[in-house]
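Q: Predict the assembly, please.
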Amino acid sequence: STVGKVIKCRAAVAWEAKKPLSIEEIEVDPPKAHEVRIKLTATGVCHTDAYTLGGFDAEGLFPVVLGHEGAGIVESVGEGVTDFKAGDHVIPLYIPQCKTCEYCLNKKTNLCQRTRVTQGKGVMPDGTSRFTCKGKQIYHFMGCSTFSEYTVVADVSVTKIDEKAPLEKVCLIGCGIPTGYGAALNTAGVEEGSICAVWGLGAVGLAAVMGCRAAGAKKIYGVDINPSKFDLAKQFGCTDFVNPKDHEGRPIQDVLVELTNGGFDYTFECIGNVHTMRAALESCHKGWGTSVIIGVAASGQEISTRPFQLVTGRTWKGTAFGGWKSVDDVPKLVQDYLNKKMLVDEFITHTMGIDKINEAFDLMHEGKSIRSVINY
Ligand code: APR
Ligand code: ZN
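A: Predicted assembly structure:
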């Protein structure tokens, strides 16, 4: 058995920013108190990984094992861990849920602060790392580090799921899908009969479309400059499409307000561009429209609009991880998938081994993938 021992395994290590990942043998230490060591089965590749690897994150630390959209099986647990045992099927969580902090006790937010400081420093809650490679300490990423065959996470940063769920699919319930889906259901609170619009038809946007449909929206517009996304988006619930490139010379918000006789009940920005954030707000209906920001803009960027937009009854909101309380809600989302209430398989356009992980980044940059899943 590997319990209590250092495990040697393969991982994709980011030695420095702007360089491809390199496949290395790393050492993964046993879990300390209140930690869980997981044998990962699969991981998605998300924009936040690319953002950090691209050196855009001023706080990005290297060398690091990236990845935060994974699923796997518990290998062993540290002292004091009561909720997990070897063999449990789990999803690591980049937003924990400790159930005791001020944020966890407030039903208005999901932003548990328990691991915030150490997670931002790329270490476990005790201030140290469980990864080494070639004699060097390797940083953790977003409390997950799923680009490795084994990882160690805090016991508040993982949740147990139904063993019937295929891990190579439900790994996507670790980030992109809940983010968009929850933005519609939790943050916006879309109602039956609503008219909605979603900017950006990547994984996050398609999940927002799916959330709008689940809430009973009457019409769901997809807004994207890449029309090759439109066909797939129909499967998720899009009823209408607008390509801003077909309306150059006119602000897209003017086009959309006209097209809908006044604007949308709910809009969602799933790109991370401050200009489309403004367009999404200003496409909302006067008096009641709500716009939700989901996309992550580059650091230092600022949003703007005329304050009269808000004075006249529009609401601007934002959300992380779709507002879901991670430990409690992720297993429920897995059930929704098993009960065919929520799509997951349809998001996966490519699968590959860890040795091909750099191709997954290329596909994402070229806009050719919705999600690539790495199978270990
Ligand atoms: N107007 C309309 N659509 C655009 C524009 C624009 N100016 N710029 C990009 N798009 C479209 C792209 O064509 C693409 O289909 O937005 C979509 C973005 O999809 P992905 O790149 O696949 O991104 P996704 O994984 O869905 O993440 C979206 O959420 O989590 C954050 O950091 C992530 O900010 C990113 C966002
Ligand atoms: Zn908490």
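The chain has a mean pLDDT of 97. Residues 176-188 form the longest helix (13 residues).
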